[in-house]
Automatic annotation (TrEMBL):
This is Histone acetyltransferase HPA2. CDD domains: NAT_SF. GO terms for molecular function: N-acetyltransferase activity. Gene3D superfamilies: 3.40.630.30. Belongs to the acetyltransferase family. Pfam families: Acetyltransf_1. Coiled coil: none annotated. Keywords: Acyltransferase, Transferase. InterPro entries: Acyl_CoA_acyltransferase (IPR016181), Diverse_Substrate_AcTransf (IPR051016), GNAT_dom (IPR000182). The keyword Transferase applies. Residues 10-156 form the N-acetyltransferase domain.
């Protein structure tokens, strides 16, 4: 019998336009979990445009039979110090009832594998400092939490 991670990996696929409504629902769930619903100004149509028309982002989904239960959204970056492209993981989300089944690990491993295949030098993301479950999860995958860096932003 395959492991839960192997089964989860088989359930990962690129999102389609038909998936955007469900992915957007999950984006809103993530915003609620992160206590950031007040910052959401986008919508499903903009997500769809950025993924499929402008191809600025990649979305992968993971399914249980008949339902999308998690996703990743990522985009390309570049490191001048490495002079290599990279990938930024914007979102990794699995619904609460599906956590602990290996889905988050499978989604992250999918992105690691894709990044390696493209010759990326890095896969990076940010994590909220209070989100201990996520920090522990990333540590269990041997990710490095950079203690000396802070995310800076201009909202334009």
């Amino acid at each position: 019998m395959p492991s839960s991670s192997a089964a989860a990996a088989n359930a990962i696929r690129p999102a389609t336009r038909a998936d955007i409504g469900r992915v957007w629902e999950l984006v809103l769930e993530l915003a609620e979990y992160e206590r950031l619903t007040h910052t959401v100004v986008g919508d499903a149509s903009a997500l769809e445009r950025n993924a499929f028309d402008d191809r600025l982002i990649e979305i992968f989904v993971i399914e249980e039979p008949g339902e999308i239960v998690g996703y990743t959204i990522s985009y390309r970056t570049f490191s001048t110090f490495r002079t290599q492209p990279g990938t930024w993981l914007e979102d990794l989300y699995v619904t609460p009832e599906c956590r602990g089944k290996g889905y988050g690990k499978a989604l992250l491993q999918n992105l690691i594998d894709r990044s390696r295949e493209r010759g990326d030098g890095r896969l990076e993301w940010s994590v909220l400092d209070w989100n201990e479950p996520a920090i522990l999860f990333y540590g269990s995958m041997s990710a490095t939490v950079l203690p000396d860096w802070r995310v800076c932003r201009f909202d334009l």
